Amino acid sequence: MTVGEKQSGTGTPPDVLDGPFSTRQLLRIDEALRLADQGTGLVFSVFVGGLDEPIRQHAERLHRQLAEPDKSVLIAVSPNQRQLEIITGRHARKRIPDTYARLAALSMVAAFGGGDLAGGIINGLDQLASHAGKG
After folding, report:
1. Distances (CA, A) of 48 to 2, 70, 130
2. CB under 8 Å to 57, separation ≥6 — which residues?
3. Are 43 and 30 in contact, with CB atoms under 8 Å apart?
4. Which residues, including other chains, have CB under 8 Å from residue 133's CB and lie 6 or more apart?
5. 3-state secondary structure string, the chain?
C-alpha cells in the first residue's frame, strides 16, 4: 500500500503518519487490503496523493510499476484534486469489469463527499473484492 505523496526531489515517501489518515484508519485500510488480496488471489494497492496531469495516465504508470500488474488492482485517490482512478490489470479486469469498478468508484466518491476518505477506500476495496470473488 502506498499512502502519501513522494516528497519533491527526494524520491522517498514521507512518514505515512504525516498523511491524511490516523493510525487506526491505516490499520483498517491495511486489513481491508489483506482481506481483498487473500480472498481473491488478486493484488490490491492504494495510492493517496497528488496525481500529475493527465490523471488517468499517471495512475496507469503507477499501476505498471506494481510487482504483478496483470493481476493487480490500483485505487489511486487525489483528495486535493478531487480525483479517483481504479486501474485493473489484464487478468484482474476479467474478474472486475469496468462497469463494476465504476460502481465501486461511485460508492467511494459518495463516502469521500461525506468526509470519510478511509471509509470510502475500505468500502471500495470490499466491493471490488466481493465482485472478483475467489481466485
Report:
1. 7, 21, 22
2. none
3. no
4. 40, 95
5. CEECCCCCCCCCCCCHHHCCCCHHHHHHHHHHHHHHHHHHCCEEEEEECCCCCCHHHHHHHHHHCCCCHHHEEEEEEECCCCEEEEEECHHHHHHCCHHHHHHHHHHHHHHHHCCCHHHHHHHHHHHHHHHHCCC
Q: What is the pLDDT of residue 54?
A: 96
* pLDDT the model gives residue 11: 43
Question: Which tens digits make up the pLDDT trace of 10-33?
Answer: 344 445 456 789 999 999 999 999
pLDDT (0 to 100) of residue 18:
66
Degrees (nearest 5) of the Cα angle 106, 26, 6?
Answer: 85
pLDDT tens, position by position, 100-130: 999 999 999 999 999 999 999 999 999 999 9
Domains of the chain: 20-132 (3.10.310.50)
Residue 1 reports pLDDT greater than 70: no
Place of cell 466518491: 109
